[in-house]
Specification:
InterPro entries: LGFP. The chain has 19 helices and 32 strands. Strand 22 and strand 23 (about 545-550) form a beta hairpin. The termini are far apart.
């Protein structure tokens, strides 16, 4: 299943062109020859590492996750920056991908119409667990489809790609037309590379026994389809190398290896040599090596991490370091130390960006912690990943500092249940959920929300509601003979005293101004209520009084006592007095207090608590109010002989429709 003869012819022609150019234009010829010489020297250096017994590691070949479809497409775009006029290069070709049922070599694959070559390669690699890098190299070594601008000039797309990977085209016989087609070639190369390893279930009756290139036992491998060229005895070390020999059953001779990319002698074959050259040049070593601090750590923990699944990768971010992936996890080394990650911790770390992400490099080994229930924690430069039955989550600064002040997972918050969330609400902030509550970081404030306070905050639409972000932690206090919890927010307060109450908006600001639960108003005894009369507004009851808000009058408090009792008796904000404008002490006469409303006033003194409204109030104020000769009111207004009368300490004001309000001194 090789294109050995075809490849040799192609190389001969390439050399002939270079020599021809050299004969015509000396300067160009020298440059071309120098380029060829440099390429040959590079190839010779690469081929120093060629081992016919181990051309490629199993872990390198049988890893279907080495490239995504997007990465394959980018690779093809770079290798084929332009396409000859009228040609359809591999980067642009599309093919219908049929639905494939699962078999012993490959998993099921869904159908996809007009799939790109990159999408097919990625899908086939994933389904059969064969590296897309290997498939790309097979395309190149067989038909130069990765770098060719027009592999078969003048032929249709179906003819160009029908033998893409050389599948079903042995050197000694005609091609099998049943294996023609780009999809068949891509799927087939992956299928057969796996099939040659004899997966479970592929032995016994009805199955071909692939045993002539055994792993671990000497076998003769021909140098060339011409048996008179002889064979080399090779003890193949792994299944991946054996699969390559089943696919292209020739080993490069000394002449082929010495020639680099060029032509050896008449007994040379180039398929497996070129596979090694292309793979190493494009993707790095065909072998995974483990060295340095990573090797020291891995040597002590091989059973936990398994075989290497890639070579070490250097990363400059967060101080720099290296990491290497293994079958069961990844080992990282940096100035912070050398530590391995497996399972959910490794997955979460990768999701956060790995060593280039917000967590930085690992700085401690995984430890088991008890907390509310069992779990693990692994520390990094900038945070910790926790894994428990509550979930897998990363806790980063500044949430982490606040979490520590609560006792981490052993404290009231317990284990984290999710990663932190960046809110899009006005002002922006970050919050993270834990078993026992949330940590909120808004501006420079880090606060904790738990229990019924948290439930109420969420019920009030959290940061997007009327409360806004929390600005203090909850505190337990005793005020006015009652014990409760209070927590302050940007635009209000939540209290828990028997029931959970919220005090928000202007009412909340007024409440805080008056000292909150420890002030004169004390604990709220009801929720905020709305009244539509007199322009509409809100009011709320507290132990020590009520707070009122109206768009025109603002927010004001009226303390519990005779004034509030009288106000309520007159219908409150929906009554004749309307909404409260202000309240305070009045030094006139015997002294007392006065509350100013939209439509009147309440005066409270030794003389009593009375309401004064309308024209009588206007006349009273015109006379000087409590500082006038009338003094403080001693009665509410009452009817007498067709008039409305109100008594004061030193007189009265009488109102009639005909004469208006007139004051008389007693």
């Amino acid at each position: 299943m090789s294109a050995t003869r075809r490849t040799r012819t192609r190389i001969r022609r390439a050399i002939a062109v270079v020599v021809g150019v050299g004969l015509v234009v000396a300067g160009v010829g020298i440059a071309a020859v120098n380029e060829q010489s440099a390429k040959a020297a590079q190839a010779a250096s690469v081929l120093d590492g060629f081992d016919p017994a181990n051309i490629i590691d199993d872990a390198v070949m049988f890893n279907g996750a080495t490239m995504t479809a997007a990465q394959i497409q980018s690779f093809l775009n770079a290798k084929q920056p332009s396409c000859a006029s009228g040609a359809t290069c591999l980067k642009s070709v599309q093919v219908d991908m049929p639905r494939m049922t699962a078999n012993l070599m490959c998993k099921a694959m869904p159908a996809q119409a007009s799939a790109t070559a990159a999408q097919v390669i990625a899908a086939v690699g994933k389904a059969c667990n064969v590296s897309p890098q290997v498939i790309l190299v097979m395309l190149q070594k067989e038909q130069t489809l990765v770098t060719g601008r027009m592999p078969y000039s003048g032929e249709s797309v179906s003819l160009i790609y029908r033998k893409a990977t050389g599948l079903g085209c042995p050197d000694t016989a005609a091609c099998d037309p049943n294996k023609y087609g780009l999809f068949n070639q891509l799927y087939g190369v992956a299928y057969w590379l796996v099939r040659y390893t004899t997966p479970p279930g592929t032995t016994g009756a009805g199955w071909t026994s692939y045993s002539w290139f055994p792993v671990g036992r000497p076998a003769g491998i021909l140098y060339n389809p011409n048996a008179t060229c002889g064979a080399k005895t090779v003890t193949i070390k792994n299944k991946a190398t054996a699969s390559l020999y089943y696919y292209t059953p020739y080993v490069p001779n000394t002449s082929a290896l010495s020639a680099g990319w060029g032509i050896g002698n008449s007994c040379s074959a180039y398929g497996n040599r070129n596979f090694y050259l292309y793979f190493t040049t494009w993707f790095g070593s065909t072998h995974y090596v483990v060295t340095g601090a990573i090797n020291t750590y891995w040597s002590k923990n091989k059973s936990a991490y398994g075989d290497p699944a890639g070579n070490a990768v250097k990363v400059s971010a967060n101080g720099g370091g290296s990491y290497q992936r293994f079958a069961k996890g990844t080992i990282y080394t940096s100035d912070a130390g050398t530590f391995g990650l497996t399972g959910s911790t490794a997955s979460k770390y990768t999701a956060t960006g790995g060593p280039s992400g917000a967590l930085g490099w690992p700085r401690k080994a995984l430890i088991v912690r008890k907390g509310v229930q069992g779990g693990t924690a692994q520390s990094f430069q900038k945070g910790t990943i926790y894994v428990s039955s509550a979930g897998t989550a990363a806790v980063l600064a500044p949430v982490y500092a606040k979490y520590g002040s609560t006792g981490y997972e052993g404290g009231a918050l317990g284990w984290p249940t999710a990663d932190a969330v960046k809110s899009s609400a006005s002002g922006g902030a970050t919050w993270q959920s834990f078993q026992g509550g949330r940590i909120v970081v808004a501006g420079s404030k880090s606060t904790v929300l738990t229990g019924s306070v948290l439930s109420m905050w969420i019920a009030r639409k959290a940061e997007r509601g009327t409360l806004g972000w929390p600005v203090t932690d909850a505190s337990t206090i005793t005020a006015h003979g009652r014990k409760g919890v209070v927590q302050t927010f940007q635009s209000g307060t939540i209290t828990v005293q028997g029931k959970v109450r919220t005090v928000t908006g202007a009412t909340g600001s007024n409440y805080v101004f008056h000292g909150g639960p420890t002030g004169t108003l004390g604990w709220p005894t009801g929720s905020s209520l709305h009244a539509s009369a007199n322009g509409g507004g809100w009011y709320q009851h507290f132990q020590g009084g009520d707070v009122f808000w109206n768009a025109k009058t603002g927010s004001h408090a009226l303390y519990t006592g005779s004034m509030l009792k009288l106000f309520d008796a007159r219908g409150g904000a929906s009554g004749t007095l309307g909404w409260l404008r202000s309240s305070g002490k009045d030094k006139g006469g015997i002294g007392g207090a006065v509350a100013v409303f939209q439509n009147g006033r309440i005066y409270s003194s030794k003389a009593g608590t009375k309401a004064v409204l309308g024209d009588i109030l206007a006349r009273y104020l015109a006379k000087g109010g409590t500082k006038s000769v009338l003094g403080w009111p001693t009665s509410n207004a009452y009817g007498k002989g067709g008039a409305t009368v109100q008594d004061f300490q030193h007189g009265r004001i009488t109102w009639t429709k005909a004469g208006g309000a007139k004051a008389t001194r007693s």
